[in-house]
Every structure is written in structure tokens, then in C-alpha cells.
Amino acid sequence: MTTSSSEQGVSLGMPQLPAPAYPDDVRARLEADARQVIDRYPDSRSALLPLLHLVQSEEGHVTRTGMQFCADMLKLTTAEVTAVATFYSMYRRKPSGDYQVGVCTNTLCAVMGGDAIFEELQEHLGVGNGETTADGKVTLEHIECNAACDYAPVVMVNWEFFDDQTPASAKRLVDDLRAGREVEPTRGARLCTFKETARILAGFPDERPGAVEESGSAGPASLVGLRLAKGETAPARVVHPRDGGPHDEQDRAVHDPSPTERLSAHDAPQETSASDPAHPAGPTAEEGE
Amino acid sequence: MTLAPELKDTSPEKLLAPVLSAFWDEDRSWTLDVYKRHEGYEGLRKALAMSPDDLIAYVKDSGLRGRGGAGFPTGMKWQFIPQGDGKPHYLVVNADESEPGTCKDIPLLFANPHSLIEGIVIACYAIRSSHAFIYLRGEVVPVLRRLHEAVREAYEAGYLGENILGSGLNLQVTVHAGAGAYICGEETALLDSLEGRRGQPRLRPPFPAVAGLYACPTVVNNVESIASVPAILNRGKEWFRSMGSEKSPGFTLYSLSGHVASPGQYEAPLGITLRQLLDMSGGMRPGHRLKFWTPGGSSTPMFTDEHLDVPLDYEGVGAAGSMLGTKALQCFDETTCVVRAVTRWTEFYAHESCGKCTPCREGTYWLVQLLRDIEAGKGVMSDLDKLNDIADNINGKSFCALGDGAASPIFSSLKYFREEYEQHITGRGCPFDPAKSTAWADSRTEVNA
Predict the structure, then answer these.
(1) Mind giving me the DSSP string for B383-400?
(2) Residue ending a domain, choose from A28, A56, A87
(3) Does residue A68 lie in a domain region?
(4) Which of B181, B280, B448 sits opposite A89 (nearest CB)?
(5) What is the mean pLDDT of each run of 10 residues along chain A (289 residues)?
(6) Are strands A99-104 and A155-157 parallel, antiparallel or unpaired?
(7) How large is the ipTM?
(8) What is the number of structural domains in chain A?
């Protein structure tokens, strides 16, 4: 529908023509949504960030049409809207995949293995940072600290948490995404597409039944202090051991996963644990301790 | 008054004090039902029985200090709001948790969002506000989902909306998702962002208490600060002051991460030490020793194993030359290259610098150029003084604290690990193997075929 300015290069001649408008039905639907968003704020301009999420939920990225729509709704200039849209890293400015796979490469995750995961995923998918696989499924990115350092290394897919990853688990994850197999985050709900995620970010609650409950109350690492304080078993025995080894049938028999430890579909069927059996969520078992 | 005798005891039951995290292990801990089973919204009833001014005085007397990093007394922030000025007042909760290493507010909001909602109602009653905003970073959809639900539940139960619990208080709460910008954790940049602008910090004065959101009196508080208020009201300021120290009373969430045996959240009275936390939780990963750590995120000067016994409260950490910050205890063992760690943090600051002021925008860029060269073995000795010099030109000379934060890892790593920088220069490269630092480095099975 529209092309980004980067594709057009810099032209010193004619100014760009105004962006084409949304089709009438789309515009009517988005306007109704936008009014709801605007009503939440004493000053309409505050609705700009949510409205940019909203137009991103329509087209998968923020287009000139989307920015024109925001400007119209908020009585701003397109320059004012563009200035904001280009400041924040969550707004995409080019078409991208259904699943945004973000590998944390800030210091702690990078050191714990995020760098290795990101490198291997680039090689495995044949794409670089910010690029999308040819099938349009996966956009790979490195991201900054996502407030989950006690689950490092962390991978986010459409901003749901996939904790305690390894190169192997991350490769399985993207393979599952591309094959259309359902994957379950360690913390968060069943994945929806990037566009659907953007709608939640615009402030429209996830309406899928049960989505808010999924993955339980808290992840295992969030509970280690509490369990120690309650005098429950030492952390080493609270959750499964970190090493690989034979797992599953036997583990499952003795360890009935609590609501906080859900099995992850991208490891299914043969493996347990929230992420990768060789490196599951939570504290290590310390041999000889 | 203090816990000094008990601190000798290493049992976690005595050293830890789960309050906000006390029932995260229960099924559906994030719902109103479970929250109410744990005396949820009882603090609010007690607060509404006081006058707003008495309430502010009560929170001030409790000694609660901001948990977002700066440690400013929460009650005093509330007191700064001018009353009877005829303008709307706003409460803005800073849930833009993005400081590298910091991971406390996200699990708190995921497992117990109602503690924040209750705190918001109490705070708004105190400062006479009828509209509060929760500015949540956008990249955490699982938390956004639960905040949406908690706010819905609170409206339905009459804890938000019109005439809350018959008190005459009306309160609207708006959950606002950000869009990816670390700078928006800075309170005035957050306000600009919430007004629909690029997140750039504002000149102060005027302070937000006088001219904040929409140029109206505004309190900006961290999630954990506000979420701590209901328990203080419900259980009393004396109970709160019975934990921690005179100047740093109360409980807080410590987040242990990195090369430790048991990364996670540990809620304890202020003043616990890293040694105590490591002793109770299994220490560093087997066979390794602590090399360096941050007391409160990457913007707080790093510590080494010399600092294991520093009391982790505002004064203790300050006296040892760093800042308590967000209590993000990122622990790195001897396999980790300091130059690599600092380079990556500096790349982060350069990426997140908003561009408004020159020292930060230009300084972080040049720090990255120098550090990348040093890490790659292409540096020269004079680069080390240059690093120090550039950091010195950022620190204290930038528009906001992002610049100071960017200088912290440079200064502190040069102070404790200058030799390691020199090794990179004389040895023409990095002497460390990054594979040895990974979480799976020591596992028996080969993870990645």
C-alpha cells in the first residue's frame, strides 16, 4: 500500500505526495477504536503511542497511511507523528514477520549465552538483525534488557517470555514457529501474531479465554526466595536439575508440574521443562553439595 | 529495633522477609480473590479512615524510600504536591523497568498486580488525585495482560471508579504501554512520552511535583514503592521500621542473576549482604568464584568480591562508592571479561541516549568506538585515560541521569580492573573464551550439537 522513505531514497525534488487513506471500512473501524483510546486521556495527544500500536496492529508495521491516520485523529501534523514513531524501537517501519523473535544481547544475557544464541539463529535462519525469513514468519532481532535477568538467557517472541534458552532450544523454537506448531512461552500466553500483540499494546485486553491465566502465577526463579523463606526444600531440589541427562518419563512421574512450571510446546513431546531440558528454568542442582 | 543479632544467623527463614512476594506460589496469585485472602485492600480501608494529610505524614514517618533507584522518601514526594491550587493532580507509576539487570517490578506485577492497584488508590487519596497512570514498558505483554485484568477487577469490585468504598474518592486508572525506550524510565522523559512525545528529559526546575503531566502537579513513583504502601498501612509503620536500618527501613526485592546457583527474587529487609544472599542460595555456580557484580543495575558502579559484606541499603552501598539503585545484583564469575561486559553496557547507553544533550549523545558514541577497539586488541594505552576523560565529561554534565549511568561502569571497571584493559592492549586481543561464561558451559551433556 505504501512504501517507506528508505526504499525511495532521498529526493530533493518533488515532496512526497500525501499517504493514501485507509479504505473506508478499515478507517471506520479504526476510528471507533481510536476514540476509545483517546477517551482514556485528559489530553488527546497522550493517545499517540497507543494509536501507533493500533495502526501497527492493522498493517504489521507503521506505514505513512497509519501515521496520517494518527495525525488526523489527534489533530497533529504528520511531522509530529513521524518524530514520535521514529523515536521508539517497538514501532516497525517496514513489513516484517508474524513472529518477532528477540534475543537479549545486553551484557548479562549476552554473557550467559545470548550472543551465542543470536549468532546461531542468524546462521540457522539465514537472516541478519532486523531481517525476516523468506516465508514471512520470523523476524529476528537482538533486543535490550527485558527485565528477566534471573531467567537468562532470554528470548522474546512477540513480547512473551521464553526463559532460560540455549542455542538448541532457540533453534527448535523458530523451527516450530515456521512450521506452524503451537509454542507456549514459559511466562505469558499462547502466542498470537505480531499484529494481535500490537492490539493488546494499544490497550485492548486480550480476549482469548484463559489467556490471562496461562503459565501460572510466577516463574520458578521468581519463587526461589519465597521458598527459602518458607523453609521449603533447598533451592537445588525445588525444581528440576539443570543438567541434561535422562529425563521425562521418570521426572514427570515424581514431579507433577505446578501451575508455575508449564511444559513448553516447542520442546514437546520428548522433553520436559520450561525451556530446554539441558538448561531449564530455575536454580541448578549442585552435585556434591 | 535493628536486626543486628539475627544477621549472624544464616537461615533464610530469618534473613528473608517476603511481603509483596508472600503468596506468589499460590494458584492464581494475581487475582483479586487471592489478594483479598491475604488481607488485600485492608490497608486501603485504614488509609481512607485518615485525613489525606495524616496519611502523607504516616507514609513519611514509615521511612519508605523510592525503590526505583534514587531512594527519595516517598512520603516527602507526596507532600510536595501543592494543595488547594485548583489544578488536577496526577499519579504516574513508573513501570518502565529497563535498567540492565533489573527484574523486580515485572515479576511483581505478573504475580501480584493488585498490590500496585491498592497502593495507587491510597496514594491518590493522599495527594488528591482522581486520575492515575501506569506507564508500563511495552515489551512485556504477559504483564500488560494481567494489569488490564487487575484494573478491570478493581473497577468491578468498587476499588476504582466513583465513590470508592463510600469515601467520596473518585479515581480513574489508565494502563499505558510504552513503545521501547530506556530513557522513558527517567521521570521527566516518561512524562513527555506519556504526553505523546519523544521521550526526552525536561529541564528541572520546575519539578514534576509543581509542573508534571500536562503542567499539573504530578507524583512519579516506582512500582515497588507504591506497591509497598498497602502493607505499611495494614501492618503499621512500626512493623515496617522494625526491618532494615534507621535511614533505610523496610523490606525490598533483591534480584539475583548471572553466574549464581539460584538466580531469582529474594525479598528481605534492607541491609542484607550479597554474602548472606549467596550463602543461603547455593553461592556462585559450582567451581567458580565471584569476580564483579552490580548492586543495582548497570548504572551503579560495579563491585568486586571485596564488597561481599557491604550492607545492601542506601547508606551502606553509598559509603562503599556505589548506589543501591534497583537492587539488581548481577553477578559475574571469573570466566567473564570485564571489557566485554562494559563495552556491551556502553553500546546500550549509546543506543538509548535520547540525543538531547551533547555530552551524552557524543560521549557515549566515542566511548563505544574506543571500547570496541580495545576489546578487539586494537587499542593503545592512552585510550584508557581517554576513556576516563570522556566518561568524566559525561558524568554530571549531562541533561539527565542516563549520562551518569553510562559513566559508572567505565569509572568503576577502570578502578578495579585496569590491568585487564591493559592485557587487551598488550596482548592484542581478549584473553577470555566467551564459551566458558555461558549458562551451559559446565553441563555434562553437549547442549548444542
Answers:
(1) HHHHHHHHHHHHTTTSSS
(2) A87
(3) yes
(4) B181
(5) 51 82 98 98 98 98 98 97 97 96 98 98 98 97 97 98 98 98 96 96 97 97 97 54 37 38 38 41 36
(6) antiparallel
(7) 0.95
(8) 2
